[in-house]
Amino acid sequence: MLHIVNGDSVAHTLQQGIVQGDILVWRELYPHGPNSLESTRGNRFARAQYLEQTLGIPHAEFVRNSKAQKKLLEDFHSYEEIVLWFEHDLFDQTMLAYLLHWFSGQSLSNTKLSLLEIGDFPGIEPFRGLGQLNVEQLATLAGTWRPIGAKELALGESFWQAYASPDPSLLQRLLEQDTSALPYAREAFQLHLSRFPSTFNGLGIVEQTTLEMVHTAAQSPFELFQETGNKLHALGMADLEYWYILRKLSHGPFPLLQVQGLGAFPTYMESAASLRDCKVVLTELGEKVMNGEEDWLTLNGINEWYGGVHLLGNSPRWRWDANMRRMKHED
To answer: Pfam families recorded for this chain (predicted)?
Structure first.
């Protein structure tokens, strides 16, 4: 039996006698950086380059890990059953969609696919993920997985195709269909669309939420990450992603935030302890943008990836209309 899980913490706990068989930690961060349908060498290198530039993840390490986990995945026929362990948030749902997409293109033969996914757990509030559970709690989930059938495979494939497409309207249309075969996908991918720059002021939901929290009370970056993560828990946002967002908001010719007492934001494998002593405050422009009096993209421009969508320049083709809860295409 092979268990594919979302992180080292879950893997370590499962190894405490909870499950039998091998464990594969799927190390990816699909909500950040370029994604594509074709898993080519060129696409892998482009993704590795982006992750190194924005998060500090070493290019060689990413490529090496991608090759290694793909090789293990391609050996799936040696297992009688493969169990996917994932949560409700976007971080996990993108991994689940990718894996279902990949398996949908394989001849499974006698290998059985199963799925365990949860969005809450008794006594854990707020529930952020499987990594919060101890040995006894995680053990209660062992054996409760359900078979993955044709509906799950087809829907997972559709979600990945839509997510990795350069046209976000494909995902919008998919969310209007029956997605009950994957019960947590709708909320996660709907929240993904709200990460796009808004028609209101050019900010996505993470940036807008951050400005509103700073406006209420100046806080340290560490506190902001905790509170934003709790409010937008369905994103499953990693700290490196958030430091990157704070860096964008506080740097450049049009900063919306000022981080007082900061040397530099931590990158991959660096401690974030120093951020506890910093203080984040709104700039005058930040308050105007927060209230919709200025548009940040018109001033600052953008060069970001959202799934398979690359937004570039001061007038990006796609924006999120929060009132209509729909993507808006701008010519």
So the answer is: DUF1835
